[in-house]
Amino acid sequence: MLILGIESSCDETAAAVVEDGCRVLSSVVASQVDVHHRYGGVVPELASRKHIEAILPVVTDALYQAGLKKDDLDAVAVTQGPGLVGSLLVGYSFAKALAYGLDIPWVGVNHLEGHILSVFLEDDPPDFPFCALLASGGHTAIYYVTGFTEIERMGQTRDDAAGEAYDKVAKVLGLGYPGGKVIDDLAHQGDPTRIRFKRPFLDRNGFDFSFSGIKSAVNRLVQNDPEGMAEQVADVAAGFQEAVIDVLTYKLMQAARSRNCGYVVVVGGVAANRRLRERVSQAGAEQGIAVHIPGLALCGDNAAMIAAAGYHYLQKGRRGKLDDDVYSRVPL
Ligand code: KG4
Ligand code: ZN
Q1: What predicted TM-score, i.e. pTM, was given to this entire model?
Q2: Which of 33, 110, 133, 136 most suits a substitution to test ligand 1, by most atoms within 8 Å of the C-beta?
Q3: 2-116+299-315: CATH class
């Protein structure tokens, strides 16, 4: 089954063609990072306008790279939420219209489920059940996954998402937007033990997180000594990163042990982080738990993961209806 996936929930316009929910024939992502960079974050109105400009070329390119024509498609899967409503509406309306015009089924997909199923687009995916850490700019949560559409949330952040904390700390340190990759790189030049930040919720039972305290601690350091900060910026980045990753790694492995899972999965934009990949892999090797983390192209927002999730819902008989709408928030 050939599915065109479409993703436009935030600041990436993406389209992909995926066969049978697991073979990626093409995956095109048009990033708007240059547009939002100077504002230090995503400007929703600008994002929607850029999606409108990009959606047709991106879909055309995805079909071209897959060597297909639109008539070859069997179905369309599109992100329905959560995300920025104006941005979502661009991809969603496009997908509806395209599927209606081609007279093929289409299905709305939860963006978070897309991230979780991104791991099935790699060779040698995990077996069920597994515990998944989803860490992105908008969400941070741990899930217990027993099937392609059977996903139970075990815990989530009570305030900032991990990626959001990276972005805010980068802003405070004057490193620009988005901050994840910059802090990841800078932290490698710093000493993670020189400035020790508290590990929030590490001592609590359960699988919730809190990252706003670490972000505020960095803020206070900068306010108290802006000059000194310039010299220690790599150590601050390394100390911040180590605190966040300690908590993410510990809670994920704890979750897996609590459910006797032999597999853990790390997905979402923050899964691109080198230190997180290293720490979870190391913990998995020590504890006899197999670790699956998708390649970098599948960590950030993309449409292949939406096509993969859409495939399983289409198989179960879910179909989009013309009067269905997008949603900005969802309790997955
Ligand atoms: O999944 P994603 O592309 O979009 C959302 O659904 O939010 O995640 C974007 C987030 C941003 O906050 C970005 O700073 C973070 O992922 N990120 C990283 C890295 N690369 C991207 N965080 C830490 N280390 C990285 N290497
Ligand atoms: Zn995402």
Answers
A1: 0.96
A2: 136
A3: alpha beta
